[in-house]
Amino acid sequence: MNIDIRSTIMTISILAVVAGLATASRARRTIVEGRKLSFFTKRRHQIELGIRLIIGALALFAFAYLNFRYGEGVMYTYFPPSLTPSLTPTITLTPTITLTPTITLTPTITNTPSVTNTPSVPDDIASQFESIITPGDNYALSGIVFAREIDDGLQPIDPATEFENPLETIYACYSYNMMDEGVQWTELWYRDGDLIQSHTGRWQGGSGGYGVAKLELEPSKWKPGAYRLLFFVGHGWVRSASFTVLGTPPTSTPTITPTQTATPTNTALPTSTPTRTSTPWPTNTP
Fold first, then answer.
1. What is the pTM of this model?
2. Cβ partners under 8 Å of residue 242, min gap 6
3. Helix, strand, coil percent content, the chain, rounded in steps of 5
4. Where are the strands (E) in the chain, listed by range?
5. Architecture of the structural domain at 123-246
6. Under DSSP, is residue 162 helix (H, G, I), strand (E, B) or coil?
7. Non-local CB neighbours of 64 within 8 Å, separated by 6+ positions
8. Parallel, antiparallel, or unpaired: how do β-strands 156-157 and 162-164 relate?
9. Ramachandran region of residue 16, left (φ > 0), alpha (ψ -120 to 50) or beta?
10. Could you give the CA distance from residue 189 to residue 199 in angstroms, rounded to a whole number?
11. Three-class DSSP category at 246
12. How many Å apart are CA 168 and CA 217, to the nearest integer?
């Protein structure tokens, strides 16, 4: 009876540990897959599922430990063991194998990654801030997706990260949740590190939904290079994404506008007309 109870307890504990490991592995995959989703609601559901799986795995590990630690004693309270003679084992010396020391390789020097500066709002744009509302910490913003066109639901059509010239407008689509109405919202567009367009103002998009930012330039100004969009709430950077423009933009053709040129004209000058005058004749004087 003693052997059967111990075997049962050990089997249950091992099965609980195996189930806990499988649940933890599935939780990790679920959370990793959730972080790759573009839209906030789907990503949140996926991450919440992963958290529940982690809690379940911890519960299985706790059950395995408690079962291994106290399960046998609990079982003996309901099934008391019967006394059986036991043999006293004798100690037999077994020769052990002595390991031959091996050469341990000295680790090589690895480069320490440099510190990456957190993006910030330029001072000349920060001086234009109007909002006095302090942003909360509960807002959430999805990843940014770029496309040439969007549909009526503000969803990207044929999203991509590389675009060929000629171009006129690039749309940046995203979703948001728990935003505070009236907080300062800033969009900065960069090309190869140079700021080419900015927009800042009070947030008026409501607490949740879908949003779109757009970069609209003349076709001749879409130079090839790396473009980057940054979002800020207040002074805090919240999201950024990049895309690449390839190909040479079309050159702008100057338009000749006709202008009126004044033509000189002959103007008649006044002429003097001779006037007839009477000349007195001499008279005889008496």
1. 0.50
2. 161, 226, 227, 228, 229
3. 30, 25, 50
4. 140-141, 145-147, 149-150, 156-157, 162-164, 169-177, 184-191, 194-202, 209-216, 225-233, 236-246
5. Sandwich (2.60)
6. strand
7. 12, 13, 14, 16, 17, 20
8. unpaired
9. alpha
10. 9
11. strand
12. 6
160, burial (CB in 10 Å: exposed 0-12, middle 13-18, buried 19+): middle
What is the three-class DSSP state of 86? coil
| Nearest C-alpha neighbor of 176 from the set 134, 210, 138, 214 | 210
Locate 87 and state its tokens.
Answer: 């043999």
Instruction: Name 147's bridge partners.
Output: 171
Tokens of 97: 């194998």
Q: Which segments of 36-104 does DSSP mark as H helices, in order? A: 40-78
Please state the domain extents for the chain. 2-78, 123-246
- Name beta bridge partners: 173: 145, 212
Residues 212 and 267: their CA atoms lie apart, in Å, by 66
Of 229, 210, 232, give the one whose Cα is nearest residue 41: 210
DSSP 117: P
Nearest CA among 30, 2, 5, 238 for reference residue 118: 238
What six digits make up the tokens of 263?
């033509």
The two tokens of residue 210 are: 């879908």
Phi, psi of 185 (to 5 degrees): -120, 130
> Residue 73: which residues within 8 A CB-CB, separation 6 or more?
none
Per residue of the chain (286 residues), give pLDDT as tens: 445 777 888 888 899 889 989 999 988 888 888 888 878 888 888 888 889 989 998 998 998 888 888 877 777 777 676 555 555 656 666 666 666 666 666 656 656 555 557 899 999 999 999 888 888 888 899 999 999 999 999 999 999 999 999 999 999 999 999 898 999 999 999 999 999 999 999 998 888 899 999 999 999 999 999 999 999 999 999 999 999 999 999 987 655 566 565 555 554 444 444 444 444 434 444 4
